[in-house]
Predict the structure.
Amino acid sequence: MELQLEPLRLPGIDPKRPIVIAGPCSAETEDQVMDTATQLCKKGIKIFRAGIWKPRTKPGGFEGVGTVGLPWMKRVQEELGMLVATEVATPKHVEAALEAGIDILWVGARTVANPFAMQELADSLRGVDVPVLVKNPVNPDLELWIGALERVNGAGIKRLGVIHRGFSSYDKKIYRNLPMWHIPIELHRRCPALPIFGDPSHIGGKRELIAPLCQQAMDLGFDGLVIESHCNPDCAWSDASQQVTPEVLDFILDKLVIRSNAQSTESLEALRRQIDECDNALLELLSKRMRISREIGQYKKEHNMTVVQTDRYNEILDKRGAQGVLCGMDGEFVKTIYEAIHEESVRQQIDIMNK
Ligand code: PEP
Ligand code: MN
């Protein structure tokens, strides 16, 4: 299905890249909301985000203040002249948010992964003209993401955008949520008119990664950024480690290099980004391989087997070398890589044996 789109038309917002949406992960107290919004406003931020309802992985976490926080958002609009955005996950949230005059709604990653929830949300938006930003689903499934967009669009919402917040994975990683940039890039290729925002806070999961991830999103031609910012990040009730003060946010935005997105994708910069992406994927895979190798180490320990099984090792070297040749690489080069991987694998298994 082709999406029927209109520009986001955010009142008072310059469509110049990047469109920045900033604010705390969660609205916690009226003071925290007003303090953060006031500081952001002074730094020139015009769109304020805050989660009122928070989907938490485990029960017992802070699930958001709920509707009591909506009048705080109204104060941000009225006293600071900012637009306000919040996450909706159920028709009740939609009703309450619209009633409170929230300017922009976004749908969170966990909700987008659930077609029933998405359809209910879409139905609750029928007949309303409000901009809706749809985050990617937690799992790297482009069709599921597009399906969610089609549901919302099918309910008549034409001011649509997407937020790339990365994809969850099991293995140890640099990022909280793997960016897998090729997925938003493919979405953008298929729907060029769909504005795309990067969410470096949820991709990175830590403050140090926000600046490079913002730059990466800009280098890929994204239209905007959604960044978590809190007046007192260390004391935040949710996502503390990934929030920055408005001061730091301003510094990060100031340092961003914004290149024209008219640039050809064949440019050196774009190719280097692809190399970075490949290296990230390689490291993730290597870490997964090591995890499995440690499990094998555990098995060998329990069954009183030696760490190095020479036949298996030779088999791997020969097979991978031959596969490498089929893929256009030098067989010796591939063998060298596998020798190094094997060495580390053995080191990790010996570690397990001696525990
Ligand atoms: C959020 O934006 O605070 C949030 C809960 O994000 P996500 O749905 O990407 O996890
Ligand atoms: Mn968050």
Observations:
- The longest helix spans residues 268-302.
- Residues 25, 51, 87, 108-109, 135, 165, 202 surround phosphoenolpyruvate (ligand 1) (CB under 6 Å).
- The two ends are 56 Å apart (CA to CA).
- The chain has a mean pLDDT of 94.
